[in-house]
Amino acid sequence: MKVVYDLSQMPALTGSVVTDGMFDGVHLGHHQLFRKVVQESKRMGLPSVLLTYWPHPRHVLSPTQEKLQLLTSLEEKAELVEEQGIDYMLVMAFTKKFSNISHELFVRDILVEGLHTKKLIIGHDHQFGKDRKGNVEYLKEAGEVYGFEVQQIGKQEVEQITVSSTKIRYALKNHLTESASHFLGRPYSLQGTVVEGDKKGRTIGFPTANIKPDEADKLVPADGVYATRIWIEKLPYSSMTNIGFRPTVNGKIHRIETHVIDFTGDLYGKKVRLEFIAPIRDEIKFSSLEELKQQLSHDQEMALKMLF
User: Fold this and answer.
1) Residue 167, in any domain of the structure
2) Are 300 and 261 contacting, i.e. CB atoms less than 8 angstroms apart?
3) How far apart are CA 168 and CA 183, in angstroms?
4) Residues 115-129: b if buried by 16+ CB within 10 A, e if exposed
5) Is position 43 within any domain?
6) CA 53, 103, 169, 238: dihedral to nearest 10 degrees?
7) Please, are residues 76 and 82 in contact by the beta-carbon 8 Å criterion?
C-alpha cells in the first residue's frame, strides 16, 4: 500500500473505488467496509483508495474541549489498513480552512477531479463537507452528474457487528481489555520509546522499561496491572505492565512500566509495541517493597497463565 499525504501527489488514476472516514481503531466494523472496497476494486479492475484525515477533526474544530483519545496513531492506522489489502491511503491535512470546504466542492475537487472515483462505498450515517451538510442523498445525485456509483452499508448490516470506536474506548477505560480485543479483532496496542526511569524496579528483581507513547493523544488503558506482550525489534516477549503512579514508592508521575519476563539487555531508546492481553489487578499501595515484590511474583505467574 502507498501512503500519500497530499492530493497533488496521488498518481494519475483513470478510476478508483473509494471509501472515506477517520477509521480510528481500524476495528472489525471497518474491516467489513474495507472488504467490500477491495472486492469491488478487483471486480472493476480499479485501485482501492482510503481517504482519511489528520489530525482528528475534533481536535481542530473543538480545541477547547478535552481532546478525544485516539485508538490508533497515523502510523498504526497505515499498518492496519495495509493488512486489509487497500492500495492507497490518502491522508488529507484537516485544518480549519479544509473544514470550510462545501460538500459540493469536496465531491468535485477531491472525489471526481482528484481521485476519479467510479464507486464510493460509505457507512450508513456518512456526512461530510462544511457543517456536515453532505449526505448520501447528495452523493447519489452527484454520482448521476459525475458518473460514479454510491454504495451505502446498511444500518442493519453494520449493527450486526455491534462494534464502534466509542465502545472500544469505554472498554479500555474500564479494564475490559478482552472486550476491546474482541471488537478490534486483535489485542489493543500502543507504540512507544523506552526512556529512563528511576530504576527502582531492578532493586527488587523486577526491572522495568518505562515506555513513552509516540502519539501524545493515544489512549492509554485504565490504571492497573496487565498481562502484556511486548515487541522488541520485531520479536515478541511475555511481559506484565503497570500503568499508574506507583503509590508504594510515592510516585508523582503517571507512567507505563513494563517488566519483560526472562529478558536481559539494554532497551533505552528502543521503539517497542505493547499489546494488552488481559487485566491482572488494580494498582494498589503496599506497606513495603518486600510485600510489593511478593505481589509482583504472583502477578508474573498470572501473566504467564494468561499469555499461554
Assistant:
1) no
2) yes
3) 7
4) bbbbbbbbbeebebb
5) yes
6) -30
7) no
Q: Alpha-carbon distance 216 to 71, whole Å?
A: 12
Q: Domain for residue 164, yes or no?
A: no
Here the cell at position 194 is 523506552
Look over the chain and give the mean of its residue pLDDT values, rounded to a whole number. 93
Nearest to 52 by CA among 83, 94, 115: 94
**What are the respective helix, strand and coil percentages of the chain, to the nearest 5?**
35, 25, 35
Percent of the chain scoring above 70 in pLDDT: 97
pLDDT digits (tens, 9 = 90+) for 55-111: 999 999 988 888 899 999 999 999 999 999 999 999 999 999 999 999 999 999 999
In the block, cell 467490500 appears at: 36
Cell match 502477578: residue? 299
pLDDT digits (tens, 9 = 90+) for 42-58: 999 999 999 999 999 99
Q: What is the DSSP letter of 107?
A: I
- Among 20, 14, 210, 200, residue whose Cα is nearest residue 115: 14
pLDDT of residue 126: 86
SS3 at position 220: coil
| The pLDDT of residue 180 is above 90 | yes
Q: Which helix (H) or strand (E) holds 160?
A: none
Q: What is the CATH number of the domain that holds 303?
A: 2.40.30.30
- State the cell numbers at 33: 467496509
User: In terms of residue numbers, what domain contains 217?
Assistant: 186-307
Answer for the pair 53, 22: CB distance below 8 angstroms, yes or no. yes
CATH number for the domain that contains residue 32: 3.40.50.620
Q: Which amino acid is at 37?
A: V
Q: How far apart are CA 194 and CA 116, in angstroms?
A: 44
Amino acid at 120: L
SS3 state of residue 214: coil
| Cα–Cα dist 285/113, whole Å | 61
Contacts of 100 (CB under 8 A, 6+ apart): 130
End-to-end CA distance of the chain: 33
